[in-house]
Amino acid sequence: MNYCFGVDIGGTTVKIGLFEETGTIVEKWEIPTNTLADGEAILPDIAFSLKTKIEERKLSEEDILGIGVGVPAPVTAEGIVNGSANLGWKYKEVKKEMEELTGLKAYIGNDANVAALRWAGRGAGRGIWRTRLGAPPPPASPSSFWLQPRGAGSGAGSSGCQPRLSPD
Q1: DSSP label of 84
Q2: Is 33:11 a contact under the CB 8 Å cutoff?
Q3: pLDDT tens digit string along 16-67?
Q4: C-beta atoms surrounding 65 within 10 Å
Q5: Are 14 and 87 in contact (CB under 8 A)?
Q6: Residues with Cβ < 8 Å from 3, sequence gap 6 or more?
Q7: What is the per-residue pLDDT across 99-119, written as a single tens digit (0 to 9) for each?
């Protein structure tokens, strides 16, 4: 059986889930978000939690397909955050650092966009792609954004943002 981790980094807590590759949740837990010293401990704390869970569950790194991470900030296609007020980050190579800390493949995105993709794939919006949504699921704030495969870096999940879509 293969698994993946889902990570939602928030300003006070990091919510983490272990999922089967089918999307079925196996376990979920939280750790505090340590924003001291410009949030330098956030990713190491997450990596430690993931490694601990792998050991507890007696999984191997080969069992883990990757880590999906939602960040409360615009994220480039390369997994770089150029500032997050909630976390204290100025410039952070999130993808590179997560992969170095865990040895696992990491996929990084804006938290609201990642939530929308999850709802489009497994929730009420199943089967929808490139469809305008009026608001992400709670507890996120109301926004307007588009599901778009090439939306990295747009920050489109930010409240009040209306991104322009380029043609295919």
Answers
A1: B
A2: yes
A3: 999 998 888 999 999 999 999 999 999 999 999 999 999 999 999 899 999 9
A4: 15
A5: no
A6: 18, 19, 20, 21, 26, 59, 63, 64, 65
A7: 999 999 999 999 888 877 765
Map 107-125 to HEC letters.
EEEEHHHHHHHHHHHHCCC
Tokens representing residue 87 in the block: 């976390």
Helix (H, G, I), strand (E, B) or coil at 49: helix
136 contacts: CB under 8 Å, gap ≥ 6: 112, 115, 116, 119, 143, 145, 157
Q: Regarding predicted confidence, which is higher, 159 or 97?
A: 97
Number of Cα atoms under 13 Å in the Cβ half of residue 148: 21
Q: Is 96 left (phi over 0), alpha (psi -120 to 50) or beta?
A: alpha
Residue 61 and residue 99: Cα distance in Å, rounded?
12
Q: Is the dihedral of CA 111, 117, 118, 124 positive or negative?
A: positive
Least trusted range by pLDDT, from 68-72, 86-90, 101-105, 126-130:
126-130
Please check the confidence at residue 156 and state whether its pLDDT lies above 80: no
Would you state the pLDDT for residue 48? Answer: 98
pTM, rounded to two decimals: 0.74
Nearest one of 38, 43, 66, 42 to 54, comparing CA atoms: 66
